[in-house]
Amino acid sequence: MKYRRSERALFSAVGDDILALHVERGLCFGMKEVSARVWDLLAEPHSAEQLCDSLLDEYSVDAETCRSDITQLLAEMEAEGLVERVG
């Protein structure tokens, strides 16, 4: 399963952070560091495994923690309408 940014979410970079707005819901979300990096990667469809592979190369985290955290983050982003599943 792969995920990508929802076309219904608008976003803007603010320094190293990301502000995303779900237009239909009128909700604003702030993303810092790792979540902002995940958002950047989701410009193209990625699976949770692919996201972890990229993050493991960039951050000091063990694979099990990365998988757990990414799975949770993707679920939260999907629930808020920021990302959607593809293929």
What do these coordinates show?
The chain has one domain (7-81): Arc Repressor Mutant, subunit A, CATH 1.10.10. With 87 residues, the protein is an alpha+beta fold. Helix 2 crosses helix 3. Strand 2 and strand 3 (17-22) form a beta hairpin. Helices cover 43% and strands 31% of the residues.
CATH architecture classification: Orthogonal Bundle
Number of strands: 6
**Strand order, sheet with most strands:** 5-1-6
Separation, N- and C-terminal Cα atoms: 6 Å
Large-scale geometry: globular
Main sheet specs = 3 strands, antiparallel
Secondary-structure element pattern, one letter each: EEEEHEHHE
* pLDDT < 50 stretches: none
Q: Look at the structure and give the mean pLDDT.
A: 94
Number of domains: 1
- Total helix count? 3
Rg calculated over all Cα atoms: 12 Å
Q: CATH class, please? A: Mainly Alpha
Name the helicity range. 40-55%
CATH topology call:
Arc Repressor Mutant, subunit A
Q: Name the structural class.
A: alpha+beta
Strand content range: 25-35%
